[in-house]
TrEMBL record, chain A:
This is Putative sulfite reductase-associated electron transfer protein DsrK. GO terms for molecular function: 4 iron, 4 sulfur cluster binding; metal ion binding. Keywords: 4Fe-4S, Electron transport, Iron, Iron-sulfur, Metal-binding, Transport. It comes from Desulfomicrobium norvegicum (strain DSM 1741 / NCIMB 8310) (Desulfovibrio baculatus (strain Norway 4)). It holds the Pfam family Fer4_8. Residues 84-113 form the 4Fe-4S ferredoxin-type domain. Signal peptide: none annotated. It comes from the Bacteria.
Length: 543, 337
């Protein structure tokens, strides 16, 4: 983060006054720090996407295929037929501006093309100019414009700045969802081989190894085994997780971000401890898969088709292992995909006929809300266990934590997972304070990651996009002494620590099950002196 | 500039009617043919647009959830903002269409000293939009008295309510005042707020001026020019009963009014005004949020999708898996070949 200006300087630069000139006359300027590197051609090739090549966004020549306009027009025409959402959203925006100041990237950057309405208008203007009679005849007078290389560059720059968090959609009187527009926009760009590497390479990795980092099965095993060592050191209990086990009750799939990067790793240790507890106390058999070892679906950031291809592994693996249902870890877009796409995409094709409507064998609760997908969110599962008193919890172990809750965008606005994690969190920590209204629940702010995930090259953009979230955290930190930000998303856990360090250095980031595991009391465990992070527990400090 | 274009365009349209129906005496064209044609364009165009949208598929269930999902029995679901039943979806749509629920949520962002951002409730747009749409609706309903004989009680009732305060003669309609104020607000907002001005196009200003032109010509006709109401009704009744007549001496202001209305009707299906039909079709609002409970079916199929199967995966990594005692489907010797 060395190139970044200081927070005060970055903040002082935010100006919401747009330029004097009409937006169509303001050429795109691709600024370092605000874009991600072009996709590695090998990754694009691996998943068979077209026009893989080396190119650089800063170059004038993007090495486009000769008939690039035709490719875009055909792609656009096809998608207008395939997605009513897209067609409606192209046609009915009245530019009332209700969405304008709702996007975290606009709030943090002041760049008017980050206003959701204008971001969509970048595509809409071409649709108008090239596809509608009115626009073809009247051109710019009807708000239409031609598709030029400049316009294409503008698309690429701004569509990959959208994190598809859908906050604007909450405020739009017609529910226009810019995520739908940018998903399609990215699909179109992908037809020309214009992806970013932080999406394309994880996609290729997920496809090949099952997870976005390309962790091969033996290494995946080693990483989990390493967590088991740590857990044994801390608790005296060694979890014995199973992998790829046929006939297990439940298949567990979590974002692989939890397996490799702090603080997600602590959440991962939390899952391991919870499952070990449930195995010892109630005989529940949960298995992990090395093949389906990624919950996060990077295809969602690429195209609907890629999303389908990556998502299929979940059901294929559940089918092969013969589990009753699938439990999903803490992840954002993974849950958007599971909740709104999975059953449609891959349900009958891959879902096991022996899979059952999920029920918790320990409490008897039937998860009717997941009757068709047969996938339960771990926050729902743990909330049910706690409500029925099935976990022995000691809140005091989290006494040094003053928690506030970040509703991760996709579970919040694509699912409505709001109260389950709060219930779990309040059951395992003593101090809990909500951030101000307007920044939580369905109005929650994106972490600022999204499109670029954990990329270093677009740090400036991520800090700008992270401002609204961080600012609300700062408020509860300054006013109430909040020192921990909880969330149920692996991208949050990858992005928010940097953003907190930048805007509110006194606040740390954690997942939900890290807190659960800290509070979970195993029969026969040794007296714990530290939490999962190896930090002293309250009252156990070294003298 | 864009606003000026639009204003000029509306003046030009009014002038066209003034010359056409006035100086050139083309009352028949402006009183009968053009309005009839405009209605036809409106009805056919509106239906075509809706059918065109309807022809596009709804492949995925993608509602924006704005509240707690249906979950465990002891967690209170937000049944309207995150509906899992058709009743809930209907309620959600009703709130959206009748009360502009989403606009009601509107907030405004402000930057402060240091690095502080605040959000405050901002309901002006909601109020302006609501006032505009409801007064427009009332005015349209009120006008039905020209097209019905006898005038239904409900329309007479609306008219009586609207002129409740009994100011002046003819009595002042409250909706006229609200309507002009609301349209003016919507226009001023577009010009004054820099971001809104930045995103506004000619077709955002044009309908506002057109509607304002219709309102002013109507008001002028009623309170100042005082056109012959009996003749107007005769013409209107003729239009709807297809026994077309053009009574003498209605006054040119009426034709201007009528022409601008005709332009609005014909422009409607071509423009963003179609949000009137589109709002009902928006998949982020009109779908059931229980997509894990009920399967949504995609009407089209993905073509040529290749999957990476477990067999391929194991073939690539079998040795490494066996090394760690990870279970495999085929033993090492068999798979190694």
């Amino acid at each position: 983060m060395s190139d970044l200006p200081r927070p005060e300087a970055l903040f002082a630069n935010i100006d919401y006054t747009p330029p004097k000139a009409d937006w169509m006359d303001v050429p795109v300027e691709i600024k370092p720090g605000r874009y991600c590197y072009a996709a590695n051609p090998d990754s694009v090739n691996y998943v068979g996407l077209p026009h893989a090549r080396k190119w650089n966004p800063l170059d004038d020549d993007w090495k486009l295929p000769e008939n690039w306009q035709e490719i875009i027009f055909n792609g656009l025409r096809e998608r207008l037929q395939k997605y009513r959402s897209f067609k409606i959203f192209m046609d009915i925006c009245v530019r009332c501006g209700a969405c304008a100041d709702k996007c975290h990237f606009f709030i943090g950057s002041g760049d008017p093309k980050n206003m959701p309405v204008l971001r969509a208008e970048l595509l809409r203007s071409v649709y108008r100019g090239e596809f509608t009679t009115f626009g073809k005849i009247l051109g710019r007078f009807a708000g239409g414009r031609k598709l030029t290389p400049e316009v294409l560059k503008e698309w690429w720059y701004y569509f990959f700045q959208c994190s598809e968090c859908r906050r604007c959609s909450v405020f739009c009187p017609y529910g226009i969802d810019t995520a739908e527009v940018t998903i399609i926009g990215r699909e179109l760009l992908n037809l020309l081989g214009l992806n970013i590497d932080w999406i394309a390479t994880p996609v290729a990795n997920c496809y090949r190894t099952g997870n976005h980092l390309g962790i091969q099965p033996h290494a995946f095993f080693d990483m989990i085994d390493f967590f088991c060592d740590d857990i044994e050191d801390i608790t005296g209990i060694r979890p014995e997780p199973s992998f790829n086990k046929k006939g297990a009750d439940i298949l567990f799939i979590t974002p692989s971000g939890d397996v490799f990067a702090d603080p997600g790793t602590y959440t991962c240790m939390g899952y391991l401890m919870l499952f070990e507890y449930l195995k010892r106390e109630y005989g529940l058999d949960v298995t992990w898969s090395t093949y389906a070892s990624e919950g996060g679906n990077f295809g969602f950031f690429t195209s609907h088709e890629t999303m389908k291809r990556l998502n299929s592994k979940m059901y294929m693996e559940a089918d092969r292992l013969g589990v009753k249902w699938i439990l999903g870890g803490e992840c954002g877009h993974m849950w958007r995909v599971i909740h709104q796409y999975m059953d449609t995409l891959n349900g009958p094709e891959f879902q096991h006929s022996r899979m059952e409507v999920p029920s918790n064998p320990i409490t008897g609760t039937v998860f009717k809300n997941a009757a068709s997908t047969k996938m339960v969110h771990i926050a729902e599962f743990t909330a049910d266990l706690i409500k029925h008193g099935k976990l022995n919890l000691n809140k005091k172990r989290n006494a040094n934590i003053h928690l506030t809750w970040h509703d991760s965008c996709n579970p919040a606005r694509g699912m409505g997972l709001l109260d389950e994690p709060r219930f779990v969190a309040k059951s395992v920590v003593e101090k809990f304070t909500e951030m101000p209204e307007g920044t939580i629940r369905e109005q929650t702010f994106c972490c600022g990651g999204g499109a670029g995930l954990n990329a270093g090259e677009n740090d400036e953009l991520r800090m700008m996009g992270g401002l609204p979230r961080a600012n609300a955290v700062k408020y509860v930190h300054d006013k109430y002494g909040v020192n921990m930000l909880g969330c149920v998303c692996a991208i949050d856990r990858a992005v928010l620590p940097n953003s907190m360090q930048y805007w509110v250095p006194e606040v740390d980031v954690c997942g939900l099950h890290e807190l659960v595991a800290n509070a979970l009391v195993f029969p026969g465990e040794k007296e714990r002196e530290t939490d999962l992070r190896g930090e002293d527990l309250p009252g156990m400090e070294d003298e | 500039m864009k606003a000026l274009y639009s204003l000029f365009l509306v003046f030009a349209l009014a002038a066209l009617a003034l010359v056409g129906a006035g100086a050139l005496g083309m009352e028949k064209a402006f009183g009968l043919y053009i309005p009839f044609l405009a209605v036809a364009v409106f009805v056919v165009g509106f239906c075509m647009r809706v059918v065109d949208w309807g022809k596009s598929a709804v492949p995925f269930c993608i509602p924006t959830t704005c509240g707690q999902q249906e979950s465990l029995p002891w967690i209170k679901q937000s049944t309207i903002e995150n509906p899992s039943t058709t009743g809930g979806v209907v309620m959600r749509m009703l709130l959206e269409v009748l009360l502009f629920r989403s606009l009601f949520r509107n907030t405004k962002v402000d930057l402060h000293e240091g690095t502080r951002v605040t959000y405050s409730s901002s309901k002006w747009l909601w109020l302006g939009a609501l006032a505009f749409h409801y007064s427009f609706l009332t005015i349209v309903l009120r006008h039905m008295r020209f097209f019905t004989e006898p005038v239904p009680g409900i329309i007479a009732g609306i008219e009586a309510m609207d002129s409740m305060l009994q100011i002046g003669a003819p009595t002042l309609y409250l909706t006229d005042v609200v309507f002009v104020a609301a349209v003016t607000y919507l226009f001023v907002r577009r010009v004054v707020v820099p971001q809104i001005r930045y995103i506004s196009l000619v077709q955002d200003y044009f309908p506002l001026f057109l509607i304002l032109g219709i309102a002013f010509s109507g008001i002028f006709m009623r309170y100042f020019a005082k056109v012959d109401i009996i003749s107007v009704k005769q013409l209107a009744m003729g239009l709807v009963t297809f026994s077309w007549v053009v009574p003498e001496g209605i006054g040119v202001m009426f034709y201007i009014h009528m022409f601008l209305v005709s332009v609005l009707l014909a422009y409607f299906p071509l423009s963003k005004l179609m949000h009137m039909g589109g709002v009902f079709l928006s998949p982020t609002r009109n779908m059931n949020c229980a997509s894990r409970k009920f399967r949504h079916i995609n009407p089209w199929k993905f073509e040529n999708v290749h999957y990476h199967t477990y067999e391929e995966y194991e073939d690539e990594f079998r040795e490494k898996m066996v090394d760690k005692d990870l279970p495999v489907d085929k033993p090492l010797a068999e798979g190694a070949e």
